[in-house]
Design a protein that fits this description.
The protein has helices spanning about 10-15, 25-30; strands at about 15-20, 35-40, 55-60, 65-75, 85-90, 105-110, 115-120, 125-130, 135-140, 140-150, 155-165, 170-175, 180-185, 195-200, 210-220, 235-240, 245, 250, 255-260, 270-275, 280-290. The chain folds into 2 domains: about 10-185, Sandwich (Immunoglobulin-like), CATH 2.60.40; about 195-290, Immunoglobulin-like (Sandwich), CATH 2.60.40. With about 290 residues, the chain is mainly β. It is about 5% helix and about 45% strand. A hairpin with a 6-residue loop joins strand 11 and strand 12 (about 170-175). The protein contains 2 helices and 21 strands.
């Protein structure tokens, strides 16, 4: 993996903001507001060694106000100055700009058990960034970071990753394990640009035969992944029409479609494919001519 972890630079570390105690009622309110959109990102448990173990990140955004909340859950996260949490943001969703050793990150949050800081990559180093809208609350099992997008490049689409680090033995956990997650205010989660599909038979639907649609890869903005394996949806489903007539599907996601034999040849078969990935749904319309 290409991500490298570091401590706050002296100029940032010397002016860490105090997180302070957390009231239960404030915590509840902070979790719920805003709630206009959300992306849900999982990370395997138990892969952090002696570092804090991140198990999930939820991103909640309000497109109107631009407020963004990162909700990081796990075990022993940001538990001390020797075991901090980082949330790095690639505000232009381009891993080839910003800090190239950290997936193109442009902004970075540092959080420990009683303080936090926001830094900006100035092209050569991390420097302190304004944090007028920032709030950080939490415990060793839940950290909440709220920031307005006006303070992180006024972005509408971004990449990000969360990481814990043990300064004693250099163990770490990164979510995701490769590259970065993507979040879009418009998509209410990751931005799915397109969906690759496999159709069987490959020549298209044939009268009197079954026709199968399977999504084989999701195309997201570049995220610095090194793995060649495709990104697959967590689930998918299909609805189909032959002309104006609805057709029932079967199998996984009801994406196996029995094309009628009588009076089907030459007609238009329309399939609405819905894929679900990290809190986002995308609907792709596919049109075929029955042979």
């Amino acid at each position: 993996m290409t991500t490298q972890f570091r401590f706050p630079r002296p100029a940032v570390a010397s002016r860490l903001k105090r997180a302070g105690p957390i009231a239960a009622v404030l915590m509840a309110a902070f979790i719920l507001v805003p709630a206009a959109s959300s992306g849900v990102y999982a990370d395997p448990a138990g892969d952090g060694g002696t570092a804090g173990d991140i198990t999930s990140v939820t991103v909640v955004g309000d497109k109107g106000t631009g407020q963004l909340v990162f909700r990081i859950t796990g075990t022993n996260i940001a538990s001390s100055e020797k075991s901090p949490l980082f949330v790095d943001i690639d505000s232009d969703a381009n891993p080839l700009t910003g800090n190239l050793s950290e997936n193109g990150s442009d902004y970075s949050f540092y959080v420990d058990n009683n303080s936090y800081a926001l830094a900006h990559w100035d092209g050569g180093q991390w420097v302190e960034a304004p944090a007028l809208s920032v709030q950080v609350l939490g415990s060793t099992s839940l950290i909440l970071i709220s920031v307005n997008r006006s303070e992180i490049g006024n972005t509408s689409v971004l990449n990000f990753f969360a990481a814990t680090f043990n300064t004693v033995d250099l163990a770490f956990d990164s979510a995701p394990n490769d590259g970065a997650f993507n979040y879009s205010f418009d998509a209410n989660g990751p931005q799915i640009d397109s969906v690759d599909v496999r159709k069987t038979p490959s020549a298209g639907p044939k009268a009197g035969k079954k026709f199968v649609i399977v999504p084989t890869a999701l195309k997201l903005p570049p995220d610095g992944r090194t793995s060649p394996s495709p990104i697959l949806p967590e689930s998918y489903s299909c609805t189909a029409k032959l002309g104006a007539k609805k057709l029932a599907g079967s199998g996984t996601g009801r994406c196996t479609i029995a094309v009628p034999k009588a009076k089907a040849r030459g007609k238009k078969l329309t399939v609405q494919l819905t894929v679900v990935y990290q809190g986002t749904k995308k609907v792709v319309s596919l049109t075929f001519k029955v042979r």
